[in-house]
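chain below, 415 aa
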Amino acid sequence: MKQRVFLVIFTGIILTSLASGLVNPFLAIYASEEFGAPGYIIGLMSAAFGVSRTIFSPFIGRWSDRFGKKIFLLIGQVLLLLVAFGYDGAATAWALVALRFIYGLSNTMEWPISTALIGEITPIGKEGLYMGFLNSTFFIGWGLGPIVGGMIKDHFSMRGNFLIMKIVSLLAFVVTCFLPGEQALREYKRREQSAGRLGEDEHEVAPLREMLADWKTKGVIYYQFINNLGRGASFNFMSLLSREAGLSNQDVGILMTMYMTPSGIIQFITGKLADRVSKVALVHHGNTLKCIAFFFVPFCKSFWTFLFLYIAMGLLEGMFTPAFQGMAIELGRDYGQGSTQGVLQTANSSGMAIGSINNGIIQDVLGLPFVFYFGSLLGFVANGVLLRYMRLDGRRRKEVEREAKLPLSQDIKTL
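prediction:
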């Protein structure tokens, strides 16, 4: 059962991320060259994606905990296929904005639900390992997309990218049909929990107020929001910066691939590491180094300098992503995996939506390099906020443990 779930989810993630990678890195270029879209429209394209996920993530996450995850995965893949057809027929840049909103809804039913499903069957103490494998499939699929998409765009046109996206999206839908039903998954979880191999999900659909009152949850949410506020639509602006430096679409695709693929490969290793050392330390140190690299992207003037920094940023992201997702899986055992992923995606998406618009305005007013300077600064702020709330959570846990060890008479005195 577990092997079947992994095979279906991992294959589905590779295909859907490949479909996205074929088109998304070039969509800003396409909108600019085909429709003359200014910076604020480029920002709105990413903002529409983020707004959609912000609106729908909390509801879909909680619904998936109650009604099952397979149905949402299938609906998301149908929407992805419809978006591919929509891209092909879009007549204006505003149509692309609307399609990005629909793509956001599709994405809400794909990655967060897949993560939640894997989280439900992840053994205790293996959170980083399993998230490392899951993230690797995403990054490898997304990494292959840009290089293939860049070659297709250079030798044919974006119509070719849209056609391949349709085919791959359809394959993802067919593969997901083989996912076991919800009843079979629940029976498997009960058997594994009885054997002590899985954690007990005692609060699968916990009240949202209870979840948001947790210090650790607050730290993870604020970290997600602030990071994406600074780096909203970063791929779009990275693509535009590369094109301004005179690189071809194929070069841009290679750069995106070399950003994503090393990140996917290294997570096979860093996933195991995240289960052995402090997850918070991995996230903090990895994101700090990535912020420094992100700051220096505008100073690149050639393909090789871009390549060096993109590989460095990819490796650094691969260093801390399994640790961060492992933290989310631990929270999901208390509050429900779907609900937890929904809340985190809301933080992610709202930051991306606001950040995309801000960065589009920054590009138009101050220039493209300032998008990267601003993003780096907010990354450091996100690190500080995460550490602050993790320390508060640590103090709370110590207080609870201290109170649990007090004699009864002392308990009464402290009331």
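The chain has one domain: 2-178+203-403. DSSP finds 17 helices and no strands in the chain.
thats it, cya
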